[in-house]
Amino acid sequence: METSSVTMVGTKTATSSTKHHAKIAVNRFFANRLAVSGSILVLFISLICILAPVLTSYNPIEMNVQDRLKPPSASHWFGTDEFGRDVFTRVVYGSRISMGVGFSVVMITSIIGLIFGLYSAYYRRLDNFLMRINDGLMAFPAILLAIAILAALGPKMSNVIIALSVVYIPTVARAIRSVAITVREQTYIEAIRALGGKSWRIIWLHIAPNCLSPLIVQATFIFAYAVITEASLSFLGAGTPPPEPSWGNILNDGRTIMKQAWWMTVFPGLSIMMTVLGLNLLGDGLRDLLDPHTNKAKK
Amino acid sequence: MTLLKVKNLKTRFSTELGEVTAVDGVSFHVNAGETVGLVGESGCGKSVTSLSILRLFRKHSGTKLAGEIFFEQKELLTSSMEEMQEIRGNQISMIFQDPMSSLNPVYTVGNQISESLMLHQKLSKKEAYEKTIEMLSLVGIPSPEKRVNDYPHQLSGGMRQRVMIAMGLCCHPKLLIADEPTTALDVTIQAQILDLMKDLQEQLQMGIMLITHDLGVVAEVCDRVLVMYLGQIVEEASVETLFENPKHPYTIGLMKSIPTIDGKRGEKLHVIEGMVPSLHQIPAGCRFAPRCPFADEKCRSHPPDLIEVSHSHKARCWHHERIGIGGGNAIAIGNQ
Amino acid sequence: MKESVSGEVTRLRLVTNEVKEAPLLQASNLVKHFPMKSGYFGEQTYVKAVSDLSLTIYQGETYGLVGESGCGKSTTGRMILRLLEPTSGSVHYRGKEVTRFSEEELRNIRKEMQIIFQDPYSALNPRKKIGKAIQEPMSIYNIGDPKQHKEAVLELLRKVGLQPEHYDRYPHEFSGGQRQRIVLARALAVHPAFIVCDEPVSALDVSIQSQILNLLEQLQEDFQLTYLFIAHDLSVVRHISDRVGVMYLGHLVEEAPTDALFSEPLHPYTRALLSAVPEPNPKKRRERIVLSGDVPSPINLPSGCVFHPRCPQAIESCKREVPILREFAKHHRVACHLV
User: Fold this and answer.
1) Residue B178 falls within a domain, yes or no?
2) Is C116 exposed, middle or buried (0-12, 13-18, 19+ CB in 10 A)?
3) Domain residue limits at B49
4) Domain boundary among B183, B205, B222
């Protein structure tokens, strides 16, 4: 009932300016600890990606047999691997692959998922068809499906992106569809129909903008899944082929000699954990901020 | 006998834009067997007042209550939550505007009524079941022994509101707080429900606090009326006095702005200019001054008190002597 | 003074219209059945929302359509605009059969036929600024020069009583009454001749209601609009309408000029409905005709006259024969065996 009277008061007669609302949104963001700590982590990792050549002077691929399996020291912060490569350098450059794959997958799944979701929400007939394909794809465990696709296409970074996109498009499409169906039933959509607006206008200028906040939240989670799945695929040898320094590859290299060289598994493992944690926190925070009652002015 | 006495009630919320006082110094009483109407538009604080009486706010919502509320001899604001639980639903019940969201969809209506009977009246399951059927037939539900096993969605809007009333009345409360009980209903059903509430009041001698925005409903069922505007009572009078000789410009404006079923037609409706200000921007003087056709410098700078203008008739207006219907000024109720 | 004169003008115009002009809009034998499946293997049933409804609306008048929730009044309004496809029946607008229009023809006729809604909160896209929302219909139809759109929007804002500085604000910054004004401005952007007002004031506060009702009347005068005014509040309908139709369970049971309907209601349902309206005058408590029971389900309509199970005067033949809408007094049509 009206127990949450805070929304009841003051919103109906809100006359404050848009600037004021932007300020409230910023305040709300900084009051949300999840969102803030998540975005700090993600920002930190993104900086590492960008600044990789500045952070380290070693080459991530070049072997140096004299320095093999050195424990962490002042010259090799994270130690070296069995080919004498600096693990810190490989982890730093590995972040480029992880984040790159994650980002590409997010872009592709968001665009295609948005299109599928919107059109299946708007056209009932198409809906049946698209959603059955969706159900079919979602019936497979993500990693199995990705391995199967990669087995067909061959292990290449671009193929990893394609495989992961195929795996995660249904998730995005489904989320968008459910939001779009709610939006489609709103009176303002009927109003545009009554004004003679064509379907493309209704779909792209009215339904789509109202699906953006859930899409952003969903995209953040997909980013996290993509990072972890890419690492898993590389670890299993189906992903980015060695000697590229993917986090999964480094983990895999260190797997057999974990007892002698703990640093080879601990540091890439921590990196994966930090990235995924950061993205998940950010996603949860964004969901709190954007999803529940985005516009409180609604009754 | 005074059943409920509210003294200088203040309810404050903290919002993202700062603290607001939704109810600001409200005092009134309800006698046994009496129906008191609480009238006003959205945001005037009428619902918040009723929620404050039962202290139905979430613990961490940052709501602050001040003042005194006496129910019989008991002070409600200082009572413990356990004592409040005992009073709610048992001695004071509340019925809400929207019966669908106030009934739990996964339990049958019989279940929900007998639960409160078992909780408050310590009845056995069988006794509670029989009492439930009795209550359902009392509120005029046909074949109650069948309906008792229905789920809320199987009932029509009018039936659901009857179930809500049966639920509110099953423990024979001394005070019933009805928050817009008929607003969601059609007029023919509304007429049935209002008649039902009056009948039950006579039988049970309970006090009713009726919260509504509909002056027609007020005129039909209330004995005494409180008009609220922006968190304050602006006028209080018996129903006859209020409709015959309203003293506050807001009350007069409300009465004039509604079209009636048998007045003159073809004229423009009276309009109260502007809109209710936000609680964040409460006017300095009289709160109604920015919309009042009579406001002068004094009104804009000095807030008036609620003063007695005649026997048991109070108004919060500096110019109440000059204002009224047929008082030789611009405001005169033309429709009656 | 000016207002009452214009009121006279409207009514005069109505009378002359009936003699000289063809009706603006004519709905004939409209039917709407919504299919419904009961259970997985259940048989197909139908919600009979509107049954065999015919009405005529003349240029410049306000036709009020009243009835309780679920009586099919909103469905009728949407069928007239073809926002809902009628199951059968036809709608003629200025002599052209709207129900046979192609998509393209329909899009063009929508410039002339508009709708405003009950809930002003959901009628505006929360992500679109007010100015853009009002301007949108102009870009849909490529009306005028896009550079002049802003000018036109500001003019519309002024017409509906809003300020130019509202142009760049979002819907959540407005109250219900202001939003209804915005919705009106958007509908007026295409210069319509006919507007369906679907419960336009029932979600608004009392003091705001009268502002919007006055605005509707003002705009009707300024733009020569014709309204189909759908509402459940009889006092409001009485105030604004020239003629009123009363609906019950998908049927039009009575139709008459406003004064005739309210002073001499003929159908027992209309009488009960009028008597149930609470009057804001404690001294004038009218004798009330309390109807027993609830409105029956529109899935299984009662046989004969749909009102007979609740009618205090029902006789044997009411259960068997469906009464036809017949003219009893001038322009006063009733569907009842007893009149």
Assistant:
1) yes
2) buried
3) 2-222
4) B222
Query: Out of C4, C272, C280, whose CB is closest to B260?
Result: C280
Inside any domain, residue B288: yes
Could you list the mean pLDDT of each consecutive 10-residue stretch along chain C, which spans 339 residues?
Answer: 44 46 88 80 82 93 91 93 93 92 90 91 90 92 84 92 90 90 94 94 88 94 94 92 94 94 93 88 77 81 91 90 90 91
From the CB of residue B212, how many other CB atoms can be counted at a distance below 10 Å?
Answer: 23
| Residue B41 with chain C: CB contacts under 8 Å | 205-208
CATH classification of the domain holding C84: 3.40.50.300
**What are chain C's partners, defined as 3 or more CB pairs within 8 angstroms?**
A, B
* Residues of B engaging A, defined by a Cβ cutoff of 8 Å: 13-17, 20, 22, 42-43, 47-48, 51, 56-58, 61-63, 96, 98, 101-102, 275-281
Burial class, C54, CB count within 10 angstroms (exposed 0-12 / middle 13-18 / buried 19+): middle
Asked whether the whole model's pTM tops 0.95, one would answer no
Residue C299 in any domain: the answer is yes
Contact: A3, B276; criterion CB under 8 Å: no
User: What's B234's DSSP letter?
Assistant: E
Nearest to A190 among C83, C106, C108 (CB): C83
Share of chain A above pLDDT 70, in %: 90
Nearest residue in C to A209, CA atom: C127
Cis peptide preceding A243, ω within 30 of 0: yes
Q: Do A194 and C173 make contact, defined as CB atoms within 8 angstroms?
A: no
> Does pLDDT of A7 surpass 60?
no
**Residues B79 and B156 occupy one common structural domain:** yes
B154 pairs with which residues across the strands? none
Q: What domains sit in chain A, N to C, each tagged with a CATH number?
A: 34-57+85-298 (1.10.3720.10)
A298·C126 Cβ contact <8 A: yes
CB contact under 8 A, C108 and A206: no
Instruction: Measure CB to CB from residue C115 to each of A194, A197, A198 and give the nearest one.
Output: A194
Number of domain units in chain C: 1
Question: Are B153 and B298 within one domain?
Answer: no
Cα–Cα distance measured from residue A111 to residue A65, given in angstroms and rounded to the nearest whole number: 46
Provide the domain count of chain B.
2
Nearest by CB to residue A297, choosing from C117, C141, C172, is C172
> Contact at 8 Å (CB) between B305 and B236?
no
Interface with A, mutate which of B13, B61, B102, B103 (most A CBs under 10 A): B13
| Cα B304 to Cα A117: distance, rounded to the nearest angstrom | 59
| Chain C residues near residue A298 by CB distance under 8 angstroms | 121-122, 126, 172
- For A13, the closest chain B residue by CA position comes to B278
Of the candidates C219, C203, C250, C208, the one whose C-alpha atom is nearest the C-alpha of residue C65 is: C250
* Contacts of C322 by beta carbon, 8 Å cutoff, 6+ apart: C304, C305
The C residues from 266 to 325 touching A (CB cutoff 8 Å) are none
Residues B204 and B255 in one domain: no
C282 contact residues in B (CB cutoff 8 A): 219-220, 239-240, 243
Domain around C59: 2-108+230-334
Question: Which H, E and C letters describe A139-205, residue by residue?
Answer: CCCHHHHHHHHHHHHCCCHHHHHHHHHHHHHHHHHHHHHHHHHHHHCCHHHHHHHHCCCCHHHHHHH
Residues of A in Cβ contact (< 8 Å) with C187:
195
DSSP C10-64: HHHHHHHHHHHSPPSEEEEEEEEEEEEE-SSSPPEEEEEEEEEEEEEE-TT-EEE
The answer to whether residue C175 sits within a structural domain is no
Asked if residue C85 belongs to a domain, the reply is yes
Beta-carbon contacts of A58 under 8 Å, excluding residues fewer than 6 positions away, are A85, A86, A88, A89
- The single-letter code of the amino acid at B9 is L
Q: Is residue C114 domain-resident?
A: no
The ipTM assigned to this model is 0.84
Task: Look at residue B336 and tell me if it is in a domain.
Answer: no
